[in-house]
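User: Some background: our group keeps a shared notebook of sequences we're curious about, and every so often someone picks one and asks for a predicted structure to add to the entry. Today it's my turn. The entry only has the sequence so far, pasted here. Could you supply the structure so I can complete it?
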Amino acid sequence: MTQQDRRALVVGLGIAGLATAIGLRQAGWEPVVVERAPERRTGGYFVGVFPEGKTALADLGASENLHVRNPVDGKDWSVSRSGRARPGAGFLDRPGGPYAVVRGDIEDALWRTLDDLGGAEVRFGTRPVDIEQTPEAARVRLLRESDGTETVEEFALVVGADGVRSGVRRLAFGPDDDYLDQWGAIICALELDEQVPGLGPEDGSIDARSRRAAWVFGFADRTPTALLTYRTDDVDAQFARPPVETLRTVYAGMDHPSVAHVLDQLEKAPHFLFDSVNQVRMPSWRAGRVVLVGDAAWCLNLYSGMGSSMAMRGGADLGKALRDHPEDLAAALAAWETGLRPAITGHQRRARLMQQLFVPSGPVAERVRSAVLAGLGAVGRIANRKDAGSKPADAGKVPAGAVVRR
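Assistant: Of course. Here's the predicted structure to add to the notebook entry:
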């Protein structure tokens, strides 16, 4: 294949898109990245990086660029129905010793790594509006949204890394309804300007009731982030009013200071995520010269805790497959999907169990959840926090900011 034959379009400048661009660079390809947003996003909500993500970071050469924010002196507090808080098991007590970061920390690490490899052409405010495949190339019509200009370019490969409601997926595979699995739940994630009154600077809290829960995630060197998540029998109705009004209604009666504080912070938050919970299920992630990566292909969803880790894994593995099959794109894409799919399927299945830990489905599940976490918490804290100092070098703080989604 000539260098022109190795020109790839990556749609999306998030974690999946950046990891893919690095993987392509490592395989000798020339990535061109288009991003619908007008500029790079920073900050964001809490993310845990698990062993598969750590391995992917190492394979991508990005480990040393990641700023890790695991609390050193913080505690996680579990709030009972009576409002009493006691030491409990938090997200970082899960097996695997996850790194605590915000989404922007990972994107910044990957951006630095891509720059070290020579960078990539990045076009902001741009998205594909048509993809036509021929035996020789994928012809993509690109729209520059600032002035409506359209251009047509040819690429040997098109990678859709543009999220759960992927435009590339709609163009190449069909409408969202064919692939989106609706979970009957809502999430709201935001950054807090101030810690919850009464909590230590690095503390977190979990108030998980039947069908609704409020989480606060503490960090070592920045203000916390929060997650509100609840179950609903009518997802569409949740968007009929402003999110703050909807959430105040849903969380009425949960009077712990953490809930009140998060709702008050939401009132003035410049950015937050308010969205339905979905998974993406597809029989194949590739169609000719078009392939999907990350949430566009498999969206594990927030409950799995593995979205960012597997997005990086997907990009790193794609690069490896292209290196292993340098003259046969179809064989490379087939090998990539065959190798990755079992892990993705397993994480999608386990996400249902994890949903019960985030937001129990009823009173019985609430009691079972409390009993399970009480037993696992001590074991996890001992195993994971022994390694609190074993983390990549500090790459510096990332400015605040977050994605706003509907």
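Suggested note for the entry: Residues 378-406 have pLDDT under 50 and may be disordered. The first strand starts at residue 7 and ends at 11.
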